[in-house]
Amino acid sequence: MAVELRVQIDDQDFQILRRRLEGLGTGAIPGALYEIGESVRTMAIDAFSESASPEGADWEPSQRALRQGGKTLVDTATLRNSLSVAMGRDEVEVGSNMVYAAIHQLGGKAGRGHKLTLPARPYLPDVGGKLLRQEALDILSAHLGEALK
């Protein structure tokens, strides 16, 4: 199962900014959504560098990283490098097509017979978290400011 991050912000401030951008008819919404997606992707890539969630919670080190002195989840960097941004008409998705992406993000049972329990090592930001909400609002505000110039 691959993992993707879908963000739906029903926040009043977000909706006000979105309506203002739509009313300008400048095409600012797609640009803002793309920038939000790229920002989320950058947060995720940084998580791999920091071995911590975008919100700053340290990951439990993997057995491989402890044995070899490397970093958790970056032995081959395949998962990190698989992160992509996909745009819809009024949505943006950030995710990975790797079958093991979800187990690393969410944690859970893995391996043959599901005998191994992997801890969650979230590399995508918390969908309901303040970090992602503030980032989206900042980007929308900046695009609104540019559209009004």
Order of helices and strands: EHHHHEEHEEH
**Spans where pLDDT lies below 50 across 5 or more residues:** none
Please give the largest β-sheet: 3 strands, antiparallel
Mean pLDDT: 86
Beta-strand percentage range: 5-15%
User: How helical, in percent, are the residues?
Assistant: 40-55%
Structural class: alpha+beta
Number of DSSP-assigned strands: 5
Give an overview of the whole structure.
The protein is an alpha+beta fold and about 150 residues long. About 50% of the residues lie in helices and about 15% in strands. The chain has six helices and five strands; from the N terminus they run βααααββαββα. It has helices spanning about 10-25, 30-50, 65-70, 80, 100-105, 130-149, and strands at about 5, 85, 90-95, 110, 115-120. The strands form two sheets. Strands 1-3-2 form a three-stranded antiparallel β-sheet. Strand 4 (about 110) and strand 5 form a beta hairpin. The protein is elongated and about 55 Å long.
